[in-house]
Every structure is written in C-alpha cells, then in structure tokens.
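pasting for the record
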Amino acid sequence: MIATFVIFLREGIEASMIVAILLAYLDRIGQRRHFRDVLLGVAAALALAGGGGVAAYLTIHAYAGSRVQTIFETCTFAVAAVLLTYMTFWMRSHSRTISRDLRARTDAVLGRGERLGLALLAFQAVGREGVETAVFTLAIVFATGTHGTLAGGLAGLAGALAIAFVIYRLGRRLDLGKFFTVIGALLMVFAAGLVADTVENLQQLGWLRLLDHPMWNSGHVLAEGSAFGDVVHSLFGYAQQPTPLQLVAYVVYLAATLAAFLRAGRPHRGEPRRATGRARSTSEHAAGDTALTA
C-alpha cells in the first residue's frame, strides 16, 4: 500500500501539474474554449493506461505459478526499474524548462488551428505518466501482491490532486524542489528493490548462475509474506533469503543512483542561486514557470 501511495502521489503531482500548466496558459491567452480538448486528451490517456494495466494483469494472472509468469514478472521488474530511474533524472534536468516547452508546443498547435493537436498534446504529456504508473503498479503487485494496492493508489492520487491544487493557488509557498528531491530519493530505493527482484527471478529461471546460493534465511524473524515483511519488501527490497548477487546489485545500484541524483541537484560552481523574492500570485505563475521546479 505504501509503495503504490508514493508512486501515485509522485506521478499524480507531475501529471496534474502538466495539465495545470496547459489550462493556465490557455486561460491567460483567452482560449478557455479549448479546455475541453485538453480534458478529452487527459481522459483518453488515463483510459488507455488504466485499461492496458488491467489487461496486462489479467492476461498474466492466467499463467499464475508458471514459468511464463516468472518471465513476465522479470521483464516488468526490469522495465519498471529503468523507467523509475529515467523519469526521476529526466524531471530533475528538465523541470526548469517544461513549462516553457509546453507553452511553445501549445502555441504551435493553436497556430495551425488544430483542436485535435491540443488533445494529442495533453494525451502525450499525461499518457507517459499513466503508462509509467501502470508499469510500476504491475511491478509492485507482482512483487508484493494485491493487498492494499488499490487503497494506496487512490490515497496517493487524492494526495497528488490536493497538493496540485495548493500549488496552483499558492505558487512558491510550497517548495516543490525539496518535495521532489525527497520523493525522487525514495523512488531510487524502490528501484533498487526492483533490481534485486529482477536478479532473484533471473536466478530462479536459471538464466543467471552466479552467486546464487542464499546467504541466510531470516524468515523466522521477519517473513517476506507477512504484513510487515510485505511493506519492508515493497519499500526497501527486503528478501528473507537473499543471494550474494542480489545484495551486490541492490547496494551498487542504490549507491550509484542516489549519489548521482543528489549531485545533480546541487548548483554548479559559479552558477548563481535563484532569487527567492516575493512570489507572484497569478495562476499562470503558480502552475507555470516554477511549479515543477525539482
């Protein structure tokens, strides 16, 4: 539940901020009539991501306990880990220009008079977040089961919408930079657990016969299938029978990505710090230039 809460919270905030930027800009240039086009694109993206995720789960569920399921889970773990890492670093490096880029693309679409193009712009922007969320959720379900997944996702989505509304109304009064730094670091921990799960499955499939003998069995202290063990596994990649390669993969991945992620957030030597003057109160500023600064 906690893992899906964090995933939906993070992805929900990013997606809602993208929509807020588009709507605020359309409002500023007097094109509120295109709100419907944006919302149609958003609805289509959510339907595609949600439907695709459910279809994938139901399809693979038919192979429960089989080698096919293990292979599919392994691929899902690997893809989710890569996407988690990529999207976190991508937002870190593009957060300062995403508002300007979206406005430029909106101007280009409106300049051609293509209402469908505006819907496609919203579909593309939100669809990426939706697909990522579907993949992450599948990985969490396969790794820890379905218990609490829906409740965690709904709670995270509700929290994301509430935070997005606060940001839209209050602008810089909420420091999104620190928020995304903390959430990004936590997602790196999730991804490290997925890397360890990938290694475990590869060893179970016999595709990775290296350092594959369990070092210990802590199941009598904390069973991986227990309620608390499930939480620790989903948050930190806990395994009751870890192999040396699992441990090495987890530690190396986590150390490398966390170091790179935290280093990327520091200002370069000689780079002036951003001014922290009084925030503007307009909705365009709140949902635009700095709302997604991470």
